[in-house]
Amino acid sequence: MKAEKLLEIIGAEFYTGVPDSQLKALCDYLMNTYGIDSRHHMIAANEGNCVGLAAGYHLATGKTPVVYMQNSGEGNIINPVASLLNDKVYAIPMVFVIGWRGEPGVHDEPQHIYQGEVTVKLLDDMDVASFVIGKDTTDAEVAEKMESFRALLSKGKQVAFVIRKGALSYDEKVVYKNGFDMKREEIIRHIAAVTGDDPVVSTTGKASRELFEIREANGQGHQCDFLTVGSMGHSSSIALGVALGKPELKVWCIDGDGAMLMHMGSMAVLGANAPKNLVHIVINNGAHETVGGMPTVASRTDIVAVAKACGYPNAVCVDSFDALDRELNAAKQRDELSLIEVKCSIGARADLGRPTTTALENKENFMRHLAAK
């Protein structure tokens, strides 16, 4: 099904979401059609943020908005769907378009397996009527379902289209780029050279995949690294927990701008506790690159100022390898919480692999490494 046809059938005028690789066709169409235009399309920090934005739009206009997301984002919408949108509360209509990662019977990464199993059940539990769109679903079937959905929306209920892998297409190409030269994999290579055998917590997506391959290329083990393959936005909190539990060790967090924005409140908790043994590195390419390259608002956010306002005693931004090496070594020697924002280009190797160890093996090796330190 063409992405533009799906949106034509839904007939909305306002879209907000968090990009997903399963929905890349839809995201590319929205970017080509609207860009980031606050009147029609906004990429938000997290899926709950999207629901709040969409609810406000409905209150202002009386119209039904669309919120798009990966199914992992269902966890972030449970509270506002149940306590804000539900027809026992404010009865705010909304259409969700959800990419179905980890669909049973379809091979996917470990972080998507259980989420995939409960995707439709969670919607049922939230009283959100759903319809699954696959490669063979016809435009007529979607239009017929949307007509029945309109009766529910008119009563202040919510509905969802769940999108199977490869179900949506879009013929136009969208190129996402910025003006920076430093490649993320090389940035992580420089970080790994400084961290030694210190524990490293890396964020979900390509950053963890690149860290894994760097260790492989160096002939190193992976026991120093906790690869946060899921739970986007929580790697800095995991790193804080490790730092509090192992105050004698220097702990490093390799974060991304999209992940940092998703749960930015964790920076306030980090700053308030100010663990002296934690270095928080935010690699900022202003993009949700792992799922296609769609922009974040990080290119317009002063992350250093945010960190300082949250209580980080040290926060700097670098855009060269000389400056990066200097700040990494300074942070390693410093007995205070530090943040290093690294400006980064968009892009990764086409042949970038995935970890060959399981998530459970990663956890057990990391814990053994910490226990031996």
Uncertain spans: none
Helical content class: 40-55%
The biggest sheet, with number of strands, parallel, antiparallel or mixed sense and barrel status, is: 6 strands, parallel
Order of helices and strands: HEHEHEHEHEHEHEHEHEHHEEEHEHEH
Count the E strands. 14
Q: How many DSSP helices?
A: 14
Strand content: 15-25%
Question: What's the overall geometry?
Answer: elongated
What is the structural class? alpha/beta
Overall mean pLDDT stands at 96
Major sheet strand order: 2-1-3-4-6-5
Radius of gyration: 21 Å
Termini separation: 54 Å
Oligomer: single chain
Provide key terms for this protein.
373 residues; alpha/beta; six-stranded parallel beta sheet; elongated; single chain; 14 helices; 14 strands
Question: If you had to describe this structure to a student in words, what would you say it looks like?
Answer:
The chain has helices at about 5-10, 25-35, 45-60, 75-85, 110-125, 140-155, 185-195, 205-215, 235-245, 255-260, 265-275, 305-310, 320-335, 360-370; strands at about 15, 40-45, 65-70, 95-100, 130-135, 160-165, 200, 225, 250-255, 280-285, 285-290, 295, 315-320, 340-345. It has a 6-stranded parallel sheet with strand order 2-1-3-4-6-5, with helices on both faces. A 6-stranded parallel sheet has the order 8-7-9-10-14-13, with helices on both faces. A two-stranded antiparallel ribbon has the order 11-12. Strand 11 and strand 12 (about 295) form a beta hairpin. Helix 7 (about 185-195) crosses helix 8 (about 205-215) and helix 7 (about 185-195) runs parallel beside helix 13 (about 320-335). The chain is of the alpha/beta class and about 375 residues long. The radius of gyration is 21 Å and the shape is elongated.
